[in-house]
Amino acid sequence: MEQKLPYLLDIVLTDIAIRLVLRNVLCADTFIQNYDFQKMMDNETVFNEDDPLCALYETYTTVRFIFITLATVIACLGTGANLILIHIFAMKKSASTPATLYPSILAFLDFAICLEYLLLFGVDAVVSFVQVKSLFYLYYAYIIPAYVASRITQLAIPYMLIFATLERLVWTSENISSRFLLAMYSTSGRYFTAIVSLLVCVALRLPTAFAIEVAVYPQCDDFFRTMTTQPRQWTYHSDIYYFFDFHLMTITQTLVPFIILFALNIVIIRKLTVTTQKKELLCDQNQVHVDSLNSVISMSIRPVKSVTASVRSAIMTMVAIVASYLISNTLHLILTVMERTGNLHLFERNK
């Protein structure tokens, strides 16, 4: 049974490589969550000034286009890699390997985030910089569903990380007495938790679909300024929606997962450190008490025996994945607060 676990180690190592690239190099989380917020606000300002004939046009510089192109290439690689990862998790199921439901869902969500990046930013770069008219109408046909899907994905990722991390914590525990955890991490419990969580994420982010619209400027002479995305008028006057979209969702998506994931990973690392120290102590005792070593291991320190090298690597992999998430989410939170408060560092100063 133990010999199949190294294969799982290869899977999770591939998993962490993909996720670290996506979160820290591409920074897709931050980009998608802050998608076009300032441009939407600017559109409202321009709209209120003599009702212009053309939509606000955001110029693509060469540097920006190159950067987004490179990020798009990474997103393409991430899309393919996560599809492979999903296939591996689906095909390689055995009683000797840890449960892969949450890692499979995370792989799917990362696939979705890559695809959404391509749709929201890759296509937009081609339309705006290269000025491909055939993609212009297509882009604005799917932009709202793609944007809403990205918000749902962003909300779901941290909670799937919490469930996966909590599962790793269970692996490091000697005895689980909580009936709630036992039920939650049974086969049916995992599916129930995942399905309910995803449905809640959809419900919380669905209002976004009714808060933005594609504005059309039919009298504009510039073809690429005849359409744009902007918030619906009612959002500017709704304090309830502002509180929900900014304060409540920031707490739900960023602060709560940050605190929970940080605490869980501290506990996991501490448990693994203690386990390692006990294992080293047993190795030292082996020189004097060879005959009694097996009984000491089996009777006194079950976690050392249960946490194998491969499972240990899987646990540390999840710790690293969560750490990368915490870093990128901190950046996202800073940018979001700066945007919502109109920080001057985000604007070009007129010379």
Automatic annotation (TrEMBL):
Entry's localization field: Membrane
Major subcellular site: membrane
Keyword Membrane among UniProt keywords: yes
One annotated Gene Ontology cellular component of this protein: membrane
Domain G-protein coupled receptors family 1 profile: 81-351
Keyword line: Membrane, Transmembrane, Transmembrane helix
Protein name: G-protein coupled receptors family 1 profile domain-containing protein
